[in-house]
Amino acid sequence: MPTLPWNQIDTVLLDMDGTLLDLHYDNHFWTDYLPQKLAHATGLHPDACKAQLMSHYARVSGQIQWYCLDYWATQLNLDILAAKREIAHLISLRPDTIAFLDALKQSGRDVVLVTNSHPDGLTLKIERTQLDAHIDTLISTHEFGVTKESQSLWQQLHHRLKFDPDKTLFVDDSLPILTAAREFGIAHLLAVANPDSQQPVKQITDFPAVTDYRDLIEAIISSPVQHAGTEQ
């Protein structure tokens, strides 16, 4: 279990897919379901479609296009959002998410969702999970035109939110994104080692890593943020 200096953290920035939601939905959609949809639309073999998509994914990985439903709709001539809705029953919260979010809120910390998810994808997931009932601020990086892999995103996000990097914790399941946050100067970083419930736990050495947020709750609650003008 990672030991975080909660008495030095007043802002928590959270990824969504794989961090608060089970990544199984997204992994299944992009690696299995979408190739099947493409095969049905084109008459090509599903294996050929999957190989084609995987190659295309690699070309735009980390860029805003990779996360853009409009981009894929145009590229594939498919209604991507409609396809995502067809298997929306697979969208689910991690079992430890709500307790974690409620503890953060109870402790007085500013909690912000920062996702590379397309706004339409974010809306779909909010519909299914009511995640917005537990987080006051939800941000899709599409409004900035760049992803969390980019230093430009962190600069723009910092300008908007006015967080103190030295007092901020960022949680994500993507090591390249965590590396970008570290490069920007976010002092406290936490990796998620089990983003997909259907896959093995990852072995992570570059960052502190967690598999169950409930292990952090006692420490969070015992180190509340004292805002100006409040009394103990």
Descriptive tags:
232 residues, alpha/beta, Rossmann fold, 6-stranded parallel sheet, 9 helices, 6 strands, 11% strand
The CATH H-level homologous superfamily of the largest domain: HAD superfamily/HAD-like
Give the oligomer, counting copies of the same chain as homo and different chains as hetero.
single chain
- The total count of strands amounts to 6
Portion in helices = 40-55%
Provide the low-confidence segments as ranges.
none
CATH class of the largest domain reads: Alpha Beta
Largest sheet composition = 6 strands, parallel
Spatially, the strands of the biggest sheet line up as 3-2-1-4-5-6
| CATH architectural name of the largest domain | 3-Layer(aba) Sandwich
Task: Give the overall shape.
Answer: globular
Order of helices and strands: EHHHHHEHEHEHEEH
* Structure class: alpha/beta
Strand content bin:
5-15%
The rounded distance between the terminal residues' Cα atoms is: 28 Å
Using only C-alpha atoms, the radius of gyration works out to 18 Å
Number of helices in the DSSP assignment: 9
Q: What's the mean pLDDT score?
A: 96
Q: What is the domain tally? A: 2
CATH topology of the largest domain: Rossmann fold
